[in-house]
Fold each of these.
Amino acid sequence: MAKKLLINTELIESKLNELNVGPEHILIAIDLKKYFPLRRTLTEIFTGRRRYVRAVDGVSFAIKEGEIFCVAGESGCGKTTLGRTILGLEEATGGMLLYRPRKEIAEELEAMGFSPVYKDYFLLNYLNTNKSAFKLLRRELQIIFQDPFGSLNPRMTIAEILAEPLIVHGIGTYEERMEKVRKALIDVKLTPPEDFMFRYPHQLSGGQRQRVVIARALMLNPRFIVADEPVSMLDVSIRAEILKLMLELKESYGLTYLFITHDLALARYICDRIAVMYLGKIVEMGPAEEVINNPMHPYTRALRAAIPEPDPSNRFKLREVPIKGEVPSAINIPPGCRFHPRCVYFMEGLCDKKEPPLVKVGPDRYVACWLYAKKEGVEVESEERK
Amino acid sequence: MPPLLVVQNLRVYYYSLRGIVKAVDGVSIEVDRGETLALAGESGCGKSTLGFALLRLVPPPGRIVGGRILFDGTDLVTLPEDVLRREYRWKRISMIFQGAMNALNPVRTIGDQIAEAIMIHEKNVTKREALERAAELLKMVGIDPKRVKSYPHELSGGMKQRVVIAMALALNPDLVIADEPTTALDVVVQAQIMNLLKTLKKERNMAMIMISHDLALLAEIADKIAVMYAGKIVEYGPSDVVYENPMHPYTQLLLRSIPRLRGPKELVWIPGQPPDLRTPPPGCRFHPRCPFAMDVCRREEPPMIEIEPNRYVACWMYAKR
């Protein structure tokens, strides 16, 4: 029997109300945290102090079924760790992940002694401590890795690579598995499949390899896919083709994507909603088009201003990016607003003292910045000092 | 005055065991003093090989098999290796290598590494003078001169890239070849590095060849652009004209496949993949992927056509037959 879990349902409900969660949501993160401990120095061993890399530091969002939810940010902002934590590839340090599985899987889970913590949502990051339960769920949750050159075993043929998830989950006979492999290859447009099944990864181009990575994620008929920068290693000329394929598969398989990217221009083409992360926190969240065309947080503005546009008249002027300095280390996160040392709107006594909350500034639009928090009526005692 | 660099019909082949890879196959370019030429193209089109060839640094089994590289009137292809190394490489032409920031020596300070280049080329410079110059160079690229004593691991990715740029400029060269100088950097840092390159280029009236697959990035700095496909230049001209009115179907598609912040949300890509350079397709090398391919494209290679002065395109659509 599974362990009894003490869950404060009221707390969950109030959090879910904050996030406007309805029956259309499939995955919900509440105050999710992932800290990586650092190796202790000698003094730290004696004093018992511990230091952490706070890669994901309290992140909340709710993803609707069938949506493409984008997490954008620079390297080191925690976006990849967030994706890996959702999949249980990293164990969450704190917070909750709620997931609503398919009916069949939910029934199987209940037969195993797990019950939903809220309506038909199961607590994902708790289940991942139970191997068999989590394995069942992981069929629904898959990942597309960034690097198609590093994520395929060079000693396995494409057919072996694609059949492996089926073998791990004990699905089908050899013939049935090969049939599924064939179908997956056709779905990702590597046709005729016989041409590709018995080749090795090194015999394929980058774009073809990324299709194999996508096909592998599809083998277990998933519902939720974390796509970790799926096109950043590919040439610009073939990126759109892979994105188009992902959009088509979303329709035919009924998928929901968490799309991780550093490229706002790219996100605009395929994402429904965007969450911009900075040093482990979401600083701005909202519908993709709005966040990109009308960025509110100073960081999002800088990120947008830095994107080059194919206009040769730019060569006569310097590109003005409203940002100072460099990303600080995630070990020593600045106090108050973690963006304040780089912010051009820095307000002394406020931004460096108190962390801004993620406040709602419009329908489905959230910003964590004191420039907007005040307007929304959040009390600020040090406002006068400014 | 003749242009600083004139490359005529350059051919660089790799003699691999499984056949001859024609990475650069008859390329001609010109770069004037103070001018920036952009070399654009997909991975595997030979743009980096061309960059290496200009310094005669093509790794074996690659070899320059034909053509001329006239730098300030001297043909670098036939120059004896020791003269090239002493008088040209780094001193007059230097290179910012792709991923060079990860190739900094981890056990030596960045000051030492910059000073090394200076001391090797200028025999009567003492270590102290060289380190002073290294500090000045760091200041020039926007790093605190006190950092000469820092080790690479103490610097961020953006700062390491600045160090690599400082190294390339250490001997005040006339021409700098920058091979994807901002890959692996974040957009914000990328914008800062591009600003730095623009400023340095203006201050020092330096000529530059910038190699990248990113046409949006190249627009930030290029005066002229050469679009390469499968070892050949398919379009060549002033960047204003090429970006405004691309003529070769490849350039057109390449420009349309860039994701933009404004305008219609239409996903455009180039179907298929670049050819194997051991066995390039007959005729125009782009014809298997070209939406406008005609019979003649499959049979005969298109000539380089001069549309207007200094504007060339290699496509049968513009040839008078």
Note: Residues 380-386 of chain A have pLDDT under 50 and may be disordered.
Amino acid sequence: MENIFIILLGLSMIYISSTSRLTAHINMLILQGWLLFLICLSGFMAEPWFNLNIFNSVKENSSHILGIAFIIIETLVVKSFIIPVFLKKVMKKTHAHRDSDANIPHFYALVISSIILFMGFMSANINAPEFKLISPLYFGVSIAVIITSLWLITVKRTVLSNVISFITMENGIFLLSLSAAKEMPVIINLGVLLDIFIAVFILGMLVREINTEFEDLEISHISELKDYE
Amino acid sequence: MINLILIFPLLACLILLFTKKKILNNFFIILYAILHFAVSIAVNLNIDFLPFWENTVFFEANGINKLFLIVLSVVFLAFAFYNRGYMKDDISNERRLRHYAYMVLFFVFSMTGSILSTNLGITWVFIEGTTLASAYLIYFHKTKHSIEAAWKYVFICSIGIALAFVGIILLTAASGSLESLYYKDLFEHAKEFNPFWLKMSFVFILFGIGTKMGLAPVHFWLPDAHAESPSPVSSLLSAALLNSAFLMIINVFRITVYAGCDFFARIMLLIMGFLSLFVAAVFIYHINNYKRMLAYSSIENMGILAIGLALGGFGMIAAMMHLVGHSLIKAAFFMTSGNILKLYESKKINHIEGIMSVDKATGWLWILSFLGIAAFPPSLLFISEFLIVKTFIVNGYYILCALFLILLTIILYGTGHNVIGMSFGKRSEIIGHKKLCLSLYIPQILLLAAAFWLGLYMPECISNIFLEASMGL
């Protein structure tokens, strides 16, 4: 079951790279948040401890309950609610609804991101002893998501879509952390989440400042600082 | 005891938040600096003046990070006093000055946390914390240029640090059945790690944290951020922040050494180190902004640190000395650049002439900082660079040694040309302050005195700290 969600996550990157409406990008972020939640949930469902009885003895199962609570907060609350709402607010304030004139046409973007995803799937089939240490499909798709996001950062033209690509990259890294099949301690997870959350928040504030100081949100305007004048 | 310097800034921020007293802004920064200095001196002398207060598992002062802690303390202490003089006539409103104080406290707190942490994951969290705290400091003047610099800084560093997190995940994959990210466990079990994933993880962490450290080719945020932030902040960025990123690289490098796959890591470090020297050499001569020039000099020195780490042995000891010398001298250099900015109100090199005749003390500090950074004896950097050259020759890397010396000479010429041009010549008209207060001179004098004194005479207790920090590499 989780394989379907993982593949959908990979496909959502293709959609992001081939549209220019920022609302559609933000909707995809919401979808990705949900998909990550479902992937984690199906991971939990495979565990022997996963049933309603864990709430009967909260003390014994506190680490499991904490883990589930954290996943819900991270994926559903932060990734698919707070961040999208915040980005939509920024979008409204800055009147940037489209990222038109990307550096390459949509058709090519579609082809390139499909090729990256395909390579991700192919890497999931590598039969090497090293790959026994990780879950291959998680690994392949997450690497594809990270590479597509990094590539999108270089081709998109507005700062807001750069922020969106940054978040999709973080989603890819979240998926990668699931592939190692080892849970990080909750305290580290919380710290990571807090950092990413604040980073997005600061980037959003800066987008608004850029909008007031510069003519618009085009990334090409933000190149006044140079070594040679 | 080290809990004190981790809890104090948070308490100070809370008190500032509730009292909103203007006078407390500087008071807390200076108090924290003094406390920080006292604690790190005690740590280095192995004295615990709060023995009843036990450390948590996440933080610890040990042989590896003691040196970094004391460097941070010294630079922060100098920063605190310089900052008081520098911000005295700032026209920003009270609210912004209060935010500035919060962010300085939080910035130093995150650097301290990243240095003292015993867990790779926690170090990561604190390093990202430093990015977020210092973003506001860079953006403090709210000009078009500072927004641009802050944007590039937050965006590039966040991506870099996110990639470093990929490295940490791959390290957990490499560690097999080991369910821990504590350095102690990682060092102990390094031999059992899967070499393929360990190397992959090192590449990601080197590039990711290398972004933060300012190694070429991922250094692009550094000149902008250092040039656009207020001068005291630039000194803290260059002399303290880059070191804390370097410590994380050292720790991960140490894992590769213990795992026996360090050859690959050393080559990566050498490439990035030489690239940094090359980038600095190419750009430094034609630059027309003296703070940018200092930023490129930081990139150069980070490159030298990476090379020292790659060489190992004496090279590593040299790298540790270089780190201390660079932090002391570069902090003084950036602070003096703040004096020049106050006198001339311009960052352009070609607008500035005759600093010596305008303000003799600033002129001398400018020249002495240059002599220090250019590794003129008895600067501490002379000894470190000499040791690195010696390590090159002993190991038989003659071509690399020649390349190293040529690149350093080009950088020396470029910096010297600009510094001498600015210091002497006819007196250009000054539009800024006519007279600067004493606290804009004393911190630099003390920092430079320390750097030159360590070059002349190094007490055994200090050389032991260097040896301990470079043990095993």
Note: The CA atoms of residues 25 and 164 of chain A lie 7 Å apart.
